[in-house]
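Fill in residues.
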């Protein structure tokens, strides 16, 4: 039973990998046919529909007020974006006019954990915060305030962001007012102050990326979960804030969290706020999805980089420890550029990336602070990488691609991955490689020589695949199921035979490592592993309960086959002898 294709929810036949094509296809000898995929698609489709229905109902009845509030928010008409509050002028703070205090224009969104992410608007371009010594503060209509802690500079738009804790009194308030960000601990609120509703994280436009021909919006909310995509015609994109000057354009695609908007037929040269709008139907009025995203036209590169690279992208959280091994190995076999989407790591990731850069590895880091948005992040990477990369490998940092046939090579070569891919002229748009899941292999801590040296025992069965995709072949919708992308109609998808190429997935590591990793899953549709729901999911570890307690005999689990192939290969290529044993090139 190949559940690995359960994520092909669109049940589109072109999402099914093709069998070996006819003669003349240079890559055909590498691929084999998986007849069972299509047979399962229909059944899986129904399972998915029921699952997403269940998901929706459980969201609606969730005790979590954020979800409920958001549900109501979606049913409110767009017009009431502004609410008036009576200001409590008795509050002592407000009698003291502060000289230096400046209101900073900003957008905000309520995150899980009653935290507000406040993002400074691009209109604040003259003096972008943060400035040392300033005491950034969030102010609320009733005179309450909370400290605004600097969070990060967001990539692409270069906006500073802060975090404020939502005061308790507003936690059961609906709608919640958007706080005012000011540069000191005191601020004079005026009775005319308008308090727009605070967008909630499950119903918001959170990112926009422009292409030459359109703009891609990443949006939480309208399409909830798998298999519930609303037709593009039911939406419009709104460029600009004011209802009389805003420009509306057509939405050309609506799949998962990714929407694509036509560009307005006038030139916009400064960043403008961009919204998504659900068009009025017989039953419902027009409603606007709130936004923290800005549109700015795509800058044409002064010196466009050569668009010929073989790139890799991955989304990480606190994996600095593994990154050197992963980058150095894959660079040696032909990955030219690494694009790391960092989900707010607080380990030494920056230092590791800097170190790799100083050794001439092309590694760039993109901060991706949006929680539980791995699919949207992968779609983003496809667009972002399209300027410089022809092929993009989507692999996690605990996954290593290799070919068993390379064991005869005494040195790695930068043509190795290339040799697993079809020629430039081929109409194969994506090649997937099955993975083998390695167990803890008796390790009790991170192995000194790296994962390829330490983990050598695995489960026997092939597990789900990972893919290298030709970016020009990616479907307009940018649909991704993490393990593969949807392709344009004219392109084919191949799954490589495990004798040709296979991914070693160091999935079940020494308990200390494994525990940390599985506490934070990045996918939007995969539940936290400690939560009792969807207990049959493939993402759940067999034999593991719902508590982060080391199962008995963990170090010996998932050990069915001794597989030393990559250990021997990497030791030959990257190991050098030292006094008592050997060291790997990535060891520091
Ligand atoms: C603002 O600063 C000026 C001097 O720089 C001072 O005269 C004035 O009283 C201050 N206003 C307030 C409200 O603190
Ligand atoms: C910020 O707060 C500190 C401590 O309260 C104070 O010393 C400092 O002057 C404040 N800075 C500004 C710009 O108001
Ligand atoms: C731009 O589009 C609007 C409708 O969307 C149309 O009315 C207008 O004529 C167009 N302008 C140009 C210059 O094409
Ligand atoms: C793990 O240790 C056991 C003995 O404790 C041994 O039989 C087994 O081969 C070891 N497995 C690996 C992968 O080293
Ligand atoms: C990449 O750019 C090409 C045009 O150069 C376009 O056809 C293709 O759809 C783009 N792919 C992505 C993922 O944006
Ligand atoms: C899945 C995951 O790890 N998401 C995290 C990404 O980063 C944000 C902000 O640090 C967290 O809130 C998410 O939980």
């Amino acid at each position: 039973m190949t559940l690995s294709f359960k994520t092909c929810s669109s049940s589109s036949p072109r999402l099914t990998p093709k069998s070996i094509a006819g003669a003349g296809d240079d890559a055909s000898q590498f691929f084999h046919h998986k007849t069972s995929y299509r047979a399962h698609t229909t059944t899986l489709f129904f399972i998915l529909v029921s699952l997403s229905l269940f998901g929706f109902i459980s969201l609606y009845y969730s005790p979590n007020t954020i979800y409920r509030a958001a549900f109501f928010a979606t049913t409110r008409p767009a017009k009431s974006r502004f609410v008036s509050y009576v200001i409590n002028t008795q509050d002592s703070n407000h009698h003291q006019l502060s000289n230096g205090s400046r209101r900073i224009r900003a957008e905000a969104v309520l995150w899980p954990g009653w935290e507000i992410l406040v993002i400074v608007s691009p209109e604040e371009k003259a003096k972008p915060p943060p400035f040392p010594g300033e005491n950034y503060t969030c102010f609320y209509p009733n005179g309450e305030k909370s400290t605004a802690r600097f969070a990060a500079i967001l990539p692409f738009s270069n906006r500073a962001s802060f975090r404020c804790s939502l005061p308790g009194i507003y936690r059961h308030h609906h709608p919640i007012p958007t706080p005012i960000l000011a540069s000191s601990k005191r601020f004079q609120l005026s009775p005319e102050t308008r308090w727009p509703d605070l967008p909630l994280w499950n119903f918001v436009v959170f990112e926009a990326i422009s292409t030459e021909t359109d703009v891609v919006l990443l949006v939480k909310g309208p399409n909830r979960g798998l298999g519930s995509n609303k037709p593009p015609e039911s939406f419009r994109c709104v460029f600009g804030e004011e209802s009389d000057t805003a420009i509306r354009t057509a939405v050309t695609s609506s799949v998962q969290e990714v929407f694509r908007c036509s560009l307005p037929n006038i030139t916009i040269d400064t960043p403008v706020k961009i919204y998504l709008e659900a068009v009025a139907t017989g039953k419902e009025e027009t409603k606007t999805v709130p936004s923290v995203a800005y549109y700015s036209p795509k800058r044409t590169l002064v010196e466009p980089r050569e668009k010929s690279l073989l790139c890799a992208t991955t989304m990480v959280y606190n994996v600095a420890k593994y990154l050197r091994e992963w980058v150095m190995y894959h660079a040696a076999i032909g990955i030219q550029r690494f694009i790391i989407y960092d989900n707010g790591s607080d380990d030494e990731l920056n230092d590791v990336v800097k170190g790799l850069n100083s050794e001439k590895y092309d590694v760039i880091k993109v901060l991706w602070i949006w929680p539980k948005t791995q699919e949207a992040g992968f779609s983003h990477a496809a667009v972002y990488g399209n300027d410089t990369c022809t092929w993009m490998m989507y692999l996690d940092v605990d996954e290593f691609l290799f070919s068993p046939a390379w064991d005869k090579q005494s040195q790695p070569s930068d043509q190795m991955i290339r040799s697993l891919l079809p020629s430039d002229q081929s109409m194969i748009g994506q090649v997937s490689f099955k993975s083998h899941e390695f167990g803890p292999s008796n390790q009790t801590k991170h192995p000194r020589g790296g994962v390829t040296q330490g983990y050598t025992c695995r489960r026997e069965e092939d597990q789900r695949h990972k893919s290298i995709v030709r970016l020009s072949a990616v479907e307009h919708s940018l649909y991704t199921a993490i393990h593969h992308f949807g392709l344009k109609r004219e392109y084919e998808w191949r799954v490589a035979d495990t004798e040709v190429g296979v991914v070693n997935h160091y999935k079940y590591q020494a308990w200390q490592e494994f525990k940390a990793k599985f506490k934070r899953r990045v996918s939007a549709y995969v539940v936290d592993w400690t939560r009792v729901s969807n207990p049959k999911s493939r993402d759940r570890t067999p034999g593991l309960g719902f508590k982060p307690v080391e199962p008995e005999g963990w170090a010996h689990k998932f050990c069915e086959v001794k597989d030393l192939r990559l250990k021997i290969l990497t030791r030959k290529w990257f190991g050098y002898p030292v006094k008592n044993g050997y060291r790997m090139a990535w060891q520091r």
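Confidence is low (pLDDT under 50) at residues 1-16, 18-98, 521-535.
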